[in-house]
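SUBJECT: A protein chain and its fold
Encoding: whole-number codes for local backbone shapes
Chain under study, with its fold:
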Amino acid sequence: MKIHVLDTKQLGHPGIVAATALETSDGIALFDTGPESTFKNVTAALRDSGSEPEDVRHVFLSHIHFDHAGAAWRFAESGATVYVHPRGAPHLIDPTKLIESATRIFGDDMQRLWGRIGPVPAKRVKILEDNEIVHVPPFEIRAIATPGHASHHHVYHWEDKVFGGDIAGVRIGNGPPIPPFVPPELHVESWRESIAKIRKLNAANLYLPHFGKIAGPVSEHLDLVDERVARWSEWFRERIRAGDDEAKLRSTFAELEHADLRKGGATQAEIDGYEAADPSYMAVGAAIRYWKKYHPGALTE
């Protein structure tokens, strides 16, 4: 049974956003779908791997952000079951609030970035609780609640493999792994606890939506993500406490992140890829909200 990393080629960029297809005895199990805007690219990649879109019988969503779940309704139309965290399910069935929230961030870019956002029929949605197992012969796929990036986040574990969603980081090309801080649900303590959960699985293979199967030891990758979660969040605390406004934070954090990436071996083209997959400016609003909501006293000490 093979695993195929399907490049969505979002906005024409290869190596930025992936869906991961697992061959099973019950058709294809797809981990994340990419946005609806890239549905044709994903279906073409499926055909290149020897499958048809209708062969996708199971869609396991790490979370419901549009770059991960935007095309879920298209696969549901063909009869796939869509598995999701309990907090994500209502927004798949009725995405109205999700669309409104995203529109506040992306504005007129919504269609270009994500395509059409449609509802997933309730009969096609299967809620998975923490540690619930789905039998997809010959595999047993376990959902593990891993908040921090989003409260409705799961990773999926089978055999010696993990599909890590965004909680396990973004790693483009030969660059280092970084944590994608995005509003509105960044929670640093939960993120680090989630990394610890993944570490305990002792998986030999880790697959990421951004991007693909990682090279090198999984434990080392997770250590690097964890270190940046802690260091970057503390950097934001110090800068917010010092009075930096959002505009200044956007420029100075971009400098910090890009320096980290270059130090970790990323080329300029790969740094551009990180920005396409995980824009650095998103971290600013996420970090400001996190510190003001959860630790306001730490900003005045």
